[in-house]
Write a structure and sequence with these properties.
By secondary structure, the protein is an alpha+beta fold. The chain has a 6-stranded mixed β-sheet. Helix 2 packs across helix 3. The relative contact order is 0.13.
Length: about 180
């Protein structure tokens, strides 16, 4: 009888905990960066979960948004989920920025020109997300630039950011080719 009571009490605590955590996150577990990071790390380590498919896609988007929204748009460097050996580089470029360099760039204002990340389009295959998004410069209301980036997720965090390109809005161009604001 005592064992049955303990099991019931434990189950009630788990249900109450889940209910409480869900009320704190109106969007559900797929919108919680910490949950998603753990979920994706577990999946990549070979764990099986009944929460595959749509939740994996949502969790990859949530992890990437720690960089796009929390980092670039809201300047919260410590909220960006990066592996210890993460890096960012530009397609065709020789240099790369390590995880701490990415965070320091956000902290030190190198990303302050990004006022808003909008209209994000996603293509997700396995552990990679390709994003195409429209940026609005700080203090402006109109699109100012267009970005393509590929993110590779490892251990439930961003391991690689490959910047494919940035195109400035035509109305900002001083010259026709190439476009320089």
């Amino acid at each position: 009888m005592a064992r049955g009571f303990t099991t019931v009490a434990l189950a009630a605590l788990v249900v109450a905990s889940l209910a409480f955590s869900q009320s704190a996150r109106a969007g559900g577990p797929g919108d919680d960066p910490a949950f998603c990071s753990n979920h994706l790390a577990y999946q990549q380590a070979g764990g099986k979960s009944p929460l595959d498919g749509k939740l994996n896609r949502q969790c990859i988007m949530t992890g990437v948004n720690t960089y796009l929204i929390d980092g670039l748009q809201n300047n919260h460097a410590d909220a960006v989920l990066l592996t210890d050996d993460a890096y960012r580089k530009t397609f065709g470029g020789d240099t790369q920025t390590d995880a701490e360099g990415i965070r320091n760039g956000i902290r030190n204002g190198q990303e302050d020109a990004v006022g808003q990340v909008t209209n994000v389009e996603w293509t997700i295959e396995g552990n990679q997300a390709m994003t195409y998004w429209v940026g609005i410069f700080t203090g402006d209301t109109q699109p100012g630039f267009y970005v393509s980036e590929r993110f590779t997720i490892r251990e439930g965090k961003i391991a690689e950011i490959l910047l494919g390109g940035v195109q400035f809005a035509p109305n900002l161009c001083v010259t026709d080719d190439p476009c320089y604001p």
